[in-house]
Specification:
Number of strands: 8
Distance between the termini: 35 Å
Helix content: 25-40%
Number of helices: 5
CATH class: Alpha Beta
Largest sheet: 6 strands, mixed
Strand content: 35-45%
CATH architecture: Roll
Strand order of the largest sheet: 4-3-8-7-6-5
Length: about 160
């Protein structure tokens, strides 16, 4: 079952050489589910949809230089969001399947500092890497252009790693 309660055993999978491969629509649906959970601050649901080895490369992580790793890292990341922001809204306007279990999400964040009261609305992009129906990596970008460039760059890196 997906975080929304959808049956993942539907015809959205194909079997090739004994392996199960997710169909692109299912990857986009998983990305939508993840953003809905995050926006609703349903962090327990987000954890269920995350792979145990998940890595979150958020803007908070860049302050410390390391991504949030594993489910405990996700708990730390979400706790920092709650501590830092009275309002933290994520909006995604466009989901793009990139193949190879990768989805690009383009939208914006709208936040208000808990102590400062400063409000910020900023375009954002996210690159999601998925495996076995779970989130494996989540990258944050400060603009749509930066996210699009990173999506192409990571695709090129993946192609070179495979050769």
């Amino acid at each position: 079952m997906s975080p929304r309660g959808h049956d993942d055993s539907s015809s959205h999978t194909t079997h090739e050489a004994g392996q199960v491969r997710r169909i692109p629509e299912q990857n986009v649906e998983l990305a939508r589910d993840l953003f809905e959970l995050w926006s609703a601050r349903n962090y327990d649901g987000f954890l269920v949809a995350a792979h145990p080895d998940v890595e979150i490369f958020s803007r908070f992580a860049s302050l410390g230089g390391e991504p949030y790793r594993g489910l405990e890292g996700v708990r730390t990341w979400t706790a920092e969001i709650e501590q830092s922001f009275g309002k933290f809204e994520v909006r995604v306007d466009d989901f793009r399947d990139l193949g190879s279990d990768r989805v690009l999400a383009l939208g914006a964040i709208d936040l208000e500092g808990r102590t400062s009261g400063i409000e910020i609305e900023q375009p954002m992009g996210w690159l999601l890497e998925l495996r076995d129906g779970k989130l494996v990596r989540l990258f944050f970008y400060s603009s749509h252009a930066e996210a699009l460039e990173a999506a192409v760059g990571r695709s090129d890196q993946d192609a070179h790693a495979d050769s």
